[in-house]
Target: Asparagine--tRNA ligase
Amino acid sequence: MTTAYIEQIGRYAGEEVTVQGWLRSRRDSGKLHFLTLRDGTGDLQAVVSKAAVGDEQFALSARLTQESSLKVRGKVRAEKRAPGGYELEVIAIELVQLAEPFPIQPKEHGTGFLMEHRHLWLRSHRQHAILRIRHEIIRACRNFFDDRGFVLLDAPIFTPNACEGTTTLFQTQYFDETAYLTQSGQLYSEATAAAFGKVYCFGPTFRAEKSKTRRHLMEFWMVEPEVAWAELADVMDLAEEFICAIVERVLENRRADLQALERDIAKLERIRPPFPRMTYHEAVAVLRKKGNPIQPGDDFGGDEETLLSNEADRPLIVHRYPSALKAFYMQSDPAHSDLALCMDVLAPEGYGEIIGGGQRIHEYDKLLNRIKEHHLPEEAFRWYLDLRRFGSVPHAGFGMGIERAVAWICGLEHVRETIPFPRMLYKLYP
Model:
């Protein structure tokens, strides 16, 4: 007997198959039971007739509870009114486990309750759609860089030093040394870029910011390309092409999931190059004109990013922030030494930053001075300085947070639904 996945059930029209899954819901109508089965690939209506299965099997179907696991054998037939256009005429049911009363019912539940039951909430249609889109975005990221000759070389999670700021590190004991959970794979990608030319790393990153905003997680995933012989303009172009490719891929393969989330697809269809670009100082002027009290030299927060990106119909690239606001490794603008050759890409509709990056310092003396200015331990960065001693070249890159990209593309209010098990401030369970 063929075991079929629900997403492929149409291939077996007129045939008998077995479907393995869980009971999403049951509806009774006299001598018929309508079971909605899910198997992770989709939903399928299974019709149980007392005449077809007999008294014992019909009684079994009557006592099935939500999320009970079972194997159902039956004949596939086309039915326009059924989910997916097909249904299963049940011949036999094998109960694997009768589920206890399911805590998540078809009623309004608070976010706190749902997060406590995240391990079960993942089974809902909404979470299913979000996480399938996340999968598509990740697949699109890999394909984009693979197709352009980049080499995937992942960076370590344990690091001996900070990448950006010592106040946002998770510290851990590494035998007789102190180690930190990585904030970014960028520094290591600079080393691999000097070996391979075009590289990217893709993995979890950790920030110990005590932030409870809708855009922050303590653990999130980043894809980070790094390119030798590249400058700021090159990675701005690369980021633009990258975002367009991801959105196009999701629209092509996950349109039904976007519709299930009631996402305004027309807004995503407008994501086309070129993206508008402005300098930091131009952005400050725009913000002040909109009534924001920001002063030149202040960093952008969520309010500023929302204001800048709220009315845009495509991502906005803001570049050349003050060097004082950026990490120690950022190259300065030759024309304005107080500005960094950096950029942020702000997603439209008020979603704010999804990409940050820029050009790195490639001169040994300049980098050493910057390390000292930031009071960083020179010994911990000896290997990083070595990259400027042996064949240093201009190089640049960026990082995109997967969860923020998912939130924007799905149209979500908060990043907590963009990853299977979010790690937030004061939230480590389950």
Observations:
- The first helix runs from residue 50 to 62.
- The chain is about 30% helix and 30% strand.
